[in-house]
Amino acid sequence: MQNTYERALQLSKEVYVLTDESHDRLVKEQLPQLSPDKFIIEPGRRGTASCITLALAQIAQNHGHDSEVAFFHADHHINDTAGFTDAVKKAVVAAREHNSIALIGIKPTYASTGFGYIEVGEKIKDAFWVDTFKEKPNQLLANKYFKNGNYLWNLGLFAAPIETFLSAYENHAPDLAQAFKLITENLKDPAKLKQVYSKLKNQPIDTALIEKTPHVVVVPGKFDWLDIGSYKDLHSLLGAEDKNSNTILGDDSLTYTDGTKSSLIMAYNKPVAVIGLKDVVVIDTEEGVLVCHKDHAQSVKKAAKKFDKHNQ
Question: Can you give the pTM of this predicted structure?
Answer without folding.
Answer: 0.83
